[in-house]
Amino acid sequence: MNRDDKVPQYKLTVVQYCLLAVLLVLGYGMWRLQVLHSETFESLAERNRVREVPILAPRGKILDREGRIIVDNYPSFSVLLLRDQKRDLNADAALISQGLGLSPEEIRSRIRKAALGHAPESQPIVLKDDITPNDLAFIEAHKVELPEIETIMVHRRLYPKNGFAAHLIGYVGEVSEDMLNQPQYELYEPGMIVGKSGVEKSYNDLLMGKDGQRRVEVDSRGRELRHLSDSPAVAGQPLKLTIDLDIQIAAEQAIGDKPGAIVAMDPHTGEILAMVSRPTFDPNAFAVRVSRQEWSRLVSDPGKPLLNKAIQAQLAPGSVFKIIMSLAGLQEGVAQSMNVHCAGGAVFYGRRFACWVKSGHGAVDVTKAIYQSCDVFFYTLAEKLGIGKIAKYADELGLGHKTGIDLNDEASGLMPSEEWKIKNFKQKWFAGETISVGIGQGAVTVTPVQLTRAISGIAMGGLLETPHVVMMDDLQNPDLKKAALEHKRETRVELDPKNWETITDAMARVTLPEGTAPSAHLQNIDLTGKTGSAQTMSNALAQKLGHSHTVGDNGWFVGFAPRRNPDIVVGVLFESGDHGYLAARLAAQVIKAYVDKQRRHELEIRKAEAGDDGPAPTLATIQDKYSPPPKQGSQPQKVAAAASGDIAQNRGSDFDFTGVWHEDAGDEHQLGSGSFTLPKGPPARPAKAAPGMQ
User: Fold this and answer.
1) Is residue 685 domain-resident?
2) Strand pairing class (271-278; 50-55)
3) Cα 367 to the chain's mean position, in Å?
């Protein structure tokens, strides 16, 4: 070889460096594969032969205060589309749709949505919930052709029938993208089922369990070869509510289909014994996947069935507010000496304000003003007190503030004041506005639970407890229990005992013949309360809109038993119920159910104590704290058999009665009559579970 044909040294050097660079790159790649990311690639390789199928944890059961089931779970199957298979999922959509009754476009849309959302391939897509036996047979028959299809057992919520306690319990659903952006849901993943309202939402972390996992070995086609291991799911913790199923049933039956709300509370502890809102909805429709049509119907319904009116309806309290007015007047030393002549109305600041009794109430003191609900008396009292003092006592009793109940989305209501008007309207308060506030109208708005708590505070001599729906002492989560107990608080308002007695004694006459709700009177039960009617719009506006005969007033009633240190307080809102006495009838049914239950329990104790010696005690012989106090100067009357609900027992096996009725509704003079025998029936039995949960 000629010297001129030799390769230059610099070219050899370049080639050597290039080879070295290639070796370094290859070496780095090998180090990266085998050392730096060894676990990642090992996991990817493992995924080619190992499939991880989630085991979903059931949510905790929801129980009443006595441990009776309100909400349970039932087993169901869902179809999953596994996205980690090396297959063209869009091409298989047609075959999948034929077997599961879905459209190919819907399946491809879900695949596309998961890809656009950057969901990991290991996260399956839920194609269909609560599948039928035919769906399951199709999946089993096409395991070879469709290895990306998998079934999973899901424990779905089983709620009571007919929307029983639906607003209190709430419902569950798939966590939304908006929720995932909130701090409290940062640890959740798309597809998880969470509480969306009510107790299900407020105590979601407690009710949710911890999902498990099943690992199986599969072949290249995704067929299962053998089971490798299981990580069992941990069920959610059971949750015991303060609700008494027997009282809840009584409240549900009392309100029926009437629009409004009922709240029953133990004023000693703040425990909610019953909570009803109407119209209602069926949470079972949400347990699987609510349809778009059903959701549109619910949100567009003018009755607002998804609104929990017990804690969210903000309406004028009407004449129930007169109890707060009476407290303010007596505490300020004004109402004791007031004697007002009611002639059906009075003039204040150049304008005539009418009383609800057009003929007037005559001479009225504070006691008569309460049980006959005289507007003129409270117009006059409002003028004497002024908005500042009225707002002060209303504020102390919690009006205009959230009660702190352990349910989400509670409304605060509104108690107007001079400061409020300046802040919100940049206007001064006019004295004439105070007159309407004096009877619970004007800008005053309350929620049923708020008004119930305020009146219970007066009935308890100034003690206001925080309402709550969960038995806090039974919470199994220490952190949650501590937070709940810290949240629970009591407030005390200083009340003169004489004023307390004056108000409660007057309220006890509301259901007597001279009061505003005699039809709600309960024999042998010391029912105390106050009726209220509140306009939904002014008479002038109603006439202008042509609704003068179609727009009814809202009926209110808050009652309790007994009149001193009561054990139960019931607040009722009857929307468009016109008169408070109609709401009082509903409350009376709930209070009677509560007292009857307490007396049955007392009767069992007395029978056990009496043994075989002496006559067996009966409900008719029980005189307890719920019985009306004897009138002064008279001997205690014997309790009538009818009062105890034990008629048949005191008349033998059957009960004879005579009835008279109108034969023709159009002819009041055409009457019919007859005698009947009513066989003695078995006593009412307490509920064993919520409706549909047996």
Assistant:
1) no
2) unpaired
3) 36
Dihedral angle sign, alpha carbons of residues 5, 6, 9, 11: positive
On whether residue 441 sits in a domain, the answer given is yes
H or E element that contains 79: strand 69-81
Judge if 108 and 226 occupy the same domain. Answer: yes
Helix (H) or strand (E) holding 31: helix 9-31
| Pairing status of strand 193-195 against strand 172-174 | antiparallel
The separation between CA 194 and the C-alpha centre of its own chain, rounded to angstroms, equals 17
Per-residue model confidence as pLDDT tens digits over 137-167: 888 888 878 878 888 888 899 999 999 999 9
Question: Is residue 410 a contact partner of residue 448, using CB atoms and an 8 Å limit?
Answer: no
| SS3 per residue for 141-190 | HCCCCCCCEEEEEEEEEECCHHHCCHHHHCCEEECCHHHHCCHHHCCCCC
pTM score: 0.82
Q: Using the 8-state DSSP alphabet, how is residue 464 labeled?
A: E
Split at pLDDT 50, 70, 90, the class of 244 is very high
341 plus 474 within the same structural domain = yes
Is the distance from CB of 461 to CB of 190 less than 8 angstroms? no
Interatomic CA distance for residues 127 and 125, integer angstroms: 6
Backbone angles phi, psi at 308, to 5 degrees: -85, 95
Pairing of strands 340-342, 362-364: antiparallel
Specify whether 470 is located in the same domain as 492. yes
- Give 222 or 428, the one with higher predicted confidence: 428
Is residue 471 domain-shared with residue 437, that is, in the same domain? yes
Side-chain-side CA neighbours of 636 within 13 Å: the count stands at 10
Overall domain count for the chain: 3
Burial label for 549, CB within 10 Å (0-12, 13-18, 19+), is exposed
DSSP bridge partners of 54: 213
| 116 part of a folded domain | yes
- Is 379 in the same domain as 521? yes
Q: Please, is 370 exposed, middle or buried when counting C-beta atoms within 10 Å of its C-beta (0-12, 13-18, 19+)?
A: buried
Question: Which strand (E) or helix (H) includes residue 478?
Answer: helix 478-487
**Which domain CATH number covers 160?**
3.90.1310.10
